[in-house]
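Hi all, long-time lurker, first post. I run a small reading group and we've been trying to get comfortable going from sequence to structure in the token notation. Rather than ask abstract questions, I figured I'd post a concrete chain and ask someone more experienced to write out its structure so we can walk through it together at our next meeting. Sequence below, copied exactly:
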Amino acid sequence: MADVISKLGDGLWNAVLMAWQVWWALVLGFAISAIVQAWVPRERIEHSLAGEQAGAIARATGLGAASSSCSYAAIAIAKSLFQKGASAASALAFQFASTNLVWELGLVLWVLIGWQFTLAEYLGGIVMIVLMWTLLRVFVSRELETEAREHAVHAQAGHIHNAVGSELPWRQRLTSLQAWTDVAHNFRGDWKMLYKEISIGFVLAGFIALLGDDFFNGLFLESSSSAVQVIWGALIGPVIAVLSFVCSVGNVPLAAVLWSGGISFSGVMAFIFADLIVLPIILAYRKYYGTRFALRITGLMYVTMVIAAILIDLLFSALGLIPDTRPSTDDVFGSIEVNYKLVLNLFGLAIFASLMWLTVRGGATDPVCGMSVDKGRAKTAEYGGRTYYFCSDHCKATFEHAHAH
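-- Answer (accepted) --
Happy to help. Here is the structure in token form:
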């Protein structure tokens, strides 16, 4: 019993240490993401995503990178774009970009396992989009895409939180309290969507690190040739991601543990790429588009993730960019000391507290979805002599229906 308690304590302490390593990077990444969401207008290019030409794919990629969404939000927004006329290729390009070409993911990768993985993540995201665009018709016919669009039009996607945006000129935004409040609400919304994913990622990483070298050596075929390890890593990386149920930034702590444990460079990248095919998201695809389309795009994404991971591994190996040494478990989790990381984490805490304070000042909580909203922009309803604030007409209508006499 004492040994079990000790192991539990070790796993949880590893999770705390990893959170300490990347806290400042998470806060900075989410802050940059919130600024992009608040200050980069999405509506201007939504209408231009129809078609499968290079221009539409490029615009979808840019929009996805600017939206910087978690995986669940990304597939919901992509579904909305698909309903409005975006092609399947554009919708999938948006999903890949919004989960791979994002600030916070790159920063945390850099901090935990090195800049090479950040560069590989961004290049791999672009490679996956190109592969998806090239292979789409092998997996999805035009007839099936039309069928899926009709299904999506009638599907209930649930509640989607749109980014809060400012329309002030750029120079005025920098000094406008309202513009920074818009940033703050997006910042809080992203944390609300992802804090469970991130926490689960840290805890899983903390406990998986306790499995030991024998487990990792067998799983990653470390006695095999490098070619076998590259291919096997790319094939098994997404499978581990699917079984872990963790997506978006929450994948990175576990990726660091897998790299420390001996998985190939391609395996790390395939694992990180695979946040769009975890089981809950596959079920969402089925709900949005129907079973046939869901299975086809899941297969398409798996193939593109595997191929992209192998291509990136080969490229980085040829350029000598794959790190020669792997971090030990102690290197991955680090320690809490009085050093520059303490200063960075205090700086991150100050940013976090300031932006959260802006959501409290003049803010309210939507009683339906729990989202923080700006009272000046929110939808309102009176009930029982009290004013309630809502993020959307959907939440307001839900509240009114629940309290109708």
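A couple of things your group might point at:
The first strand starts at residue 363 and ends at 365.
The chain has a mean pLDDT of 83.
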